[in-house]
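dumping this here so i dont lose it
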């Protein structure tokens, strides 16, 4: 087995099993019994044509272990699939109830199954005091490695002051915060009538928006030990944000305590990457190799029979050194998630 780590895998939640973990009166509510637990992710998340086998709804812990064995991966860090729409939940009480049930479900179904499974908790950002409590419970009692935050969908920007107690708690717990793409609403290009362009832009742009806000609103300055990963949007957005914010800094309009590039090279900024990104080597040269983490996105975009494909893409690159490849394929994720 290699020392490689998958920094971003996905759970295909089994709704009936998750419902069992809801507390009453939620478990018996009409909308729950009808299996409608969360809002629709957005207009595009409806049935559409895919290559056969690229999205397997039947993947559970057993199939995940098979995938880890086929790839030789030491472990994976699991994020939600169903709750990529979590930011669209508008009832705080439901956000709290769903997060607690999801975390208990994942702990029982995955974390107790194998130590090779790590997981990022759901926390109810709609109710920040409850999010702090749930983050603490998930990390200290359930053994999760941090918390997932949706990159888009919440009513407030991720750098809003009301969320700062959550970041303070994450820094205190020394756990990871993973800002993950998935919702494409209200970004302008969600009016496209074909899906590929929306997904192409809908993943990286919210990450760029989130990082920009965290820099200009002082989140990084207030919490200098906070570790944040920007997941499933690749790395190509990073040079653009560095260039544009440095330009604002030169104008004297952007006020931050450090040069813009320092926020990307601090050792607390991390980003998920894919093997075939042309931008990856340029980003490594720009901010260093310590931030980039291999992310499979299994089972969303890769089939079991192609399990090694994305790892091979990184291993076979000629524009990244062998030393840096080891960091990207495992060591960086271990440091980010404290594995």
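and the seq i came up w/
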């Amino acid at each position: 087995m290699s020392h490689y780590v998958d920094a971003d895998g996905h759970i295909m939640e089994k709704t009936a099993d998750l419902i069992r973990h809801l507390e009453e009166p939620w478990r018996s509510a009409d909308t729950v019994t009808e299996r409608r637990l969360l809002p629709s992710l957005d207009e595009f998340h409806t049935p559409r044509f895919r290559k056969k086998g690229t999205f397997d709804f039947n993947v559970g812990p057993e199939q995940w272990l098979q995938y880890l064995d086929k790839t030789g991966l030491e472990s994976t860090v699991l994020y939600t699939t169903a709750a990529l729409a979590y930011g669209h939940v508008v009832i705080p009480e439901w956000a709290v109830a769903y997060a607690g049930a999801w975390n208990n479900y994942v702990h029982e179904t995955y974390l107790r199954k194998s130590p090779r499974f790590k997981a990022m908790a759901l926390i109810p950002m709609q109710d920040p005091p409850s999010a702090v409590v749930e983050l603490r419970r998930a990390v200290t009692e359930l053994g999760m490695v941090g918390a997932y935050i949706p990159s888009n969908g919440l009513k407030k920007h991720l750098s809003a002051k009301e969320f700062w107690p959550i970041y303070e708690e994450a820094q205190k717990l020394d756990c990871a915060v993973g800002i993950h793409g998935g919702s494409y609403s209200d970004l302008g290009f969600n009016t496209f009538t074909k899906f590929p362009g929306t997904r192409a832009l809908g993943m990286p742009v919210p990450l760029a928006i989130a990082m920009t806000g965290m820099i200009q609103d002082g989140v990084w300055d207030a919490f200098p030990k906070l570790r944040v990963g920007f997941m499933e949007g690749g790395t190509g957005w990073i040079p653009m944000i560095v260039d544009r914010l440095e330009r604002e800094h030169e104008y004297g309009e952007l006020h931050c305590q450090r040069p813009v590039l320092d926020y990307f090279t601090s050792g607390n900024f991390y980003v998920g990457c894919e093997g075939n990104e042309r931008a990856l080597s340029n980003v490594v040269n720009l901010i260093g190799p310590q931030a980039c983490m291999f992310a499979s996105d299994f089972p969303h975009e890769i089939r079991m029979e192609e399990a090694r494909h994305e790892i091979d893409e990184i291993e076979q690159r000629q524009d990244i050194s062998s030393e840096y490849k080891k960091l990207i394929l495992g060591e960086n994720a271990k440091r980010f998630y404290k594995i």
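The chain has 14 helices and eight strands.
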